Amino acid sequence: MFSKMAKTVIDSTRWVAFAFLGIALLGNALGQAAAVGGEATSQTVKAEDVDDEVIELPPFVLSDKRVANQEVASTYSSAVSLLRFEPQVDLQSRNFGEAQGDIAIRGGIFEGTALRVGGLTLFDPQTGHYTAEVPIPVEMLSAPVVRTGVDHALGSMQAAVGTLDYGWRRIATGGSMSVAMGNGNLKRQSLYAGKIWLGEAGQAPGLATDIAWARSAADGTIPNGDHEFERVAGRLQLDSALGETQLLAGYQDKFFGWTNLYTPFNWPETESLQTLLILLSHRKQLGNGKLEAGLHYRRNRDDYEADRRVPGRFNPFEHETQVTGGFLSYRTKLGEWGVDMRAEGALDKVESTSLVWGRFMDRSYVKLAGAAARSFDVGAGAVTARLGATFDDTNRDDSAVSPVVELAWLPSAQLGDANLRFYGEYSEATRVPGYTVLNSNPNAGLFRGNPDAGREESRNAEIGGELRATDWGVRLAVFHRRDDPMVDWTYAASTPNARRASLVEIDSTGVELISSYTMQVIDLVASYSYLHKNADYRGAPVDASFYALNFPIHRATLAFVARLGGGVELRCDNEYRIQEENSLRIVGGDTAFLTSIGVYWTPPGQQLLEFSVMADNLWDDAYQELPSVPAPGRQVTGGVSLRF
User: Fold this and answer.
1) Which of 39, 208, 231, 605 has its CA 20 to 30 A from that of 286?
2) Alpha-carbon span 386 to 166, nearest angstrom
3) What is the largest CA-CA distance in the chain?
4) Strand partners, 404
5) Residue 375 has pLDDT above 80, yes or no
6) Distance of CA 455 to CAs 63, 233, 348, 393, 468, Å?
7) What average pLDDT is seen over the chain?
8) Helix or strand (DSSP H, E) at 572
């Protein structure tokens, strides 16, 4: 395992060297900052202190933890673990979300979601199934913000519906190590350590590093549901007169099995994934503006077996994708106007044993976005208008220009200590299909592609309102989105042994209601969503949909953290859903009640040890999150953590 990792790092030395060149350029500034001392400190402004509300209206964040259990019982936590019961996200899992999790937002599918870290959009050009393959431990990340509509359209690329936006968690001196065991012969270990070497947190000059390692292995909760994961990551954080810089390198090796992982033929399938990520991000306050920039390199290797009993039973499915990308954004004020500008680009390539039926194996992407915002006093409050547009292009596809517009009203008459806001917006976003769609054989095989599929477009109209107070908040949003076209993977009785990439025109209408309340002994987050869809496959032979029509009509969530005294804390996430009927879902029905619960105890009088017991899928519900894919069984895990 580690010999492979060493070779991986050596092969990627040029990317590490390039990243460290940026750090080296900041080295002089660090020395100069040390010389001038307090002057440098006074020049350094943290991003969260920048008043840019007129440029970007703040997202609705009731709590930095809208999911109660930040850990999982099945394996070590990852970025996707924070999404399992997120009110605005439908995480559709195979085995468990950390093994393979499709991220759907507002009735979109896994291909329509972007993931952003440190301002950089991360994606896998082969398939959105691997969007969440990001080897960054949760100890290094802030809670994600779900961006939709205008914020999504302006802030990321290569996604049609929504963006999961993760920031960096500041490094502090200290750490933790933990071990855990559970049913299915689960064994898990993890270590995290951070150190501030120079200065104080958030002040210049400052230098800090952190490292993390985690491993997990189990036989699984059903036969052929075993896994073996390992992840290692390190980060350097530099505060200087030139701003804040983060450099991360992470690597993850995953093997897991599951019956009907991707096909409905009751085969014991497996995936083997190795992911390398190197990411450099920087932000700097410039007068009344803020500059952000970043670079990243991501490589993902995948070896898929349709039947582990007979390796290579079908044409081998072995792939490697590489993406190199960067972005630059600048927000400032010009008189009464706030201006937001962003440019992002990427280069990708794929090598594959099976994706060889398309027209190309590499592609470049460019996205430009700009918006201007201004607030007006209308007597009864303030109205903020935001107008902008985006430009998307690749060297293989047609370009697209997409408008965005938003109006928000903040009435002067408030409700008690709560701030009230109403808004309406319209936005368009676009993406191009991945290589599994474009380069799979269109006439034979398990996965049948569409080499002529072109740019996908999504148009979103939305109205809503929100109340925010010190310890409670409520938000209501009503939206209508048209995806025309969207690429869906479908089933037809005439070709029962294949999944086919089909074009669909689909209208989605939805309602989202989210509320939170914080008290001395308990924190609550509750939500309800409704979704309705109309789909037109343009006469194609489609008898069932694996993704676009796999959605909850009604979904309710309840998360709470209860502090019971004596060092005991109860964390519980719950979800109830009524799913759209799907003829491919043959076990578990179309309703589900899912619960994840954890009890944590820190013995009174000390803060070093924490004992825990967790259970995922507490009621052992057989509901299939993806049709024909078996549900995991109940997983119960006990562990102990040592903080230092």
Assistant:
1) 208
2) 24
3) 75
4) 388, 427
5) yes
6) 36, 35, 17, 10, 39
7) 89
8) strand 568-579
The encoded tokens of residue 254 equal 């995953």
% of the chain residues with pLDDT over 70: 90
For 224: left if phi > 0, alpha if psi spans -120 to 50, otherwise beta; the answer is left
- Amino acid symbol at 250: G
Q: Which domain holds residue 417?
A: 2-643
Helix, strand and coil content of the chain, in percent to the nearest 5, comes to 10, 55, 35
Q: How far apart are CA 272 and CA 277, in angstroms?
A: 17
Instruction: Give the separation between CA 605 and CA 610, rounded to whole angstroms.
Output: 12
Q: What is the mean pLDDT of residues 254-276?
A: 94
Q: What is the pLDDT of residue 202?
A: 67
User: What are the counts of helices (DSSP H) followed by strands (DSSP E) for the chain?
Assistant: 5, 30
Question: pLDDT digits over 535-556, tens only?
Answer: 999 888 999 999 999 999 999 9
Gap between the Cα atoms of 603 and 642, Å rounded: 12
Q: Residue 101: is it exposed, middle or buried by C-beta count within 10 angstroms (0-12/13-18/19+)?
A: buried
For 272-287, write each residue's pLDDT tens digit: 999 999 999 999 998 8
Nearest residue to 92 via CA among 77, 107, 114: 107
Q: Is the dihedral of CA 105, 111, 112, 115 positive or negative?
A: positive
Q: Is residue 605 left, alpha or beta, with left meaning phi > 0 and alpha meaning psi from -120 to 50?
A: left
Residues 108/131, Cβ–Cβ less than 8 Å: no
CATH number, domain with residue 586? 2.40.170.20
Mean pLDDT in residue range 377-405: 96
Question: Do 540 and 487 touch, CB atoms closer than 8 A?
Answer: no
Token pair belonging to 334: 């010009």
Specify the number of domains making up the chain: 1
Q: How far apart are CA 628 and CA 497, in angstroms?
A: 13
Which helix (H) or strand (E) segment is 130 a member of? Answer: none
The Cβ of residue 467 has, within 10 Å, a number of other Cβ atoms equal to 17
pLDDT tens-digit map of 90-129 = 999 999 999 999 999 999 999 999 999 999 999 999 999 9
Report the C-alpha gap between 11 and 276 in whole angstroms. 11
Detail the DSSP E strand segments found in 260-361.
Answer: 268-286, 289-305, 317-334, 337-352
pTM to 2 decimal places = 0.88
Beta carbons of 187 and 106 less than 8 angstroms apart: no
With beta carbons less than 8 A apart as the criterion, state whether 513 and 531 touch: no
Pairing of strands 447-448, 499-518: parallel
Q: Which two tokens stand for residue 614?
A: 């967790």
Over range 80-95, report the average pLDDT. 94
Say what the alpha-carbon torsion angle 256, 258, 261, 263 is, to the nearest 10 degrees: 130
Q: Which amino acid is at 77?
A: S
| Rounded Cα–Cα distance for residues 298 and 277 (Å) | 5
